Hints:
With 183 residues, the protein is an alpha/beta fold. The chain has helices spanning 3-26, 29-79, 86-91, 111-122, 142-148, 175-181; strands spanning 82-85, 100-106, 131-137, 155-159, 165-170.
Amino acid sequence: MNPTRAVTRILVPLAVTALALTACSSGTTSESASVAASAEEVMESESAMTDKAMESESAMAEEVMESESAMTDDAAMAAHGSYITLADYQGNKDMYAKDDVVLFFHASWCPTCKATEENLNADPTRIPAGLTIVKVDYDNSDELKQQYGITTQHTFVQVDADGNELAKWTGTLTADDIAGQTA
């Protein structure tokens, strides 16, 4: 409960009671009615002010929650790496220039490729920050296969920002395994 509302809930009834007692001791009915009416007006005014304050606080809280949600989404994106398509990588290479980039030569018919992809997609937050894994279609990427000497699917090639090979291996199944193989 906010402090303004707490004070209002305590002080207004006390003030009303004090006014009523004062009016009772003065002995006139019209004065008592006038004091009671004044007390009622004070309570209504306080109630209206409290309602406005609560509406304002509610609107501010909603704005803060939306802002925190946006920051949380941004922080979550920065807190883990990425598993993207070759087209996404080629269209935004500069965005991944500071990351460890690993090309994953994937075939849709390959059981170990499917297992790795399921692991990567099951919990993308498990991909360590600074690691970008790029899914390359093994069956349709002859030029890349030739460039990196790829002869079997489920091969990983770590490349630098210029596309130079830094490391090559096969057989890893999880983001942690892939990160552990990077140079």
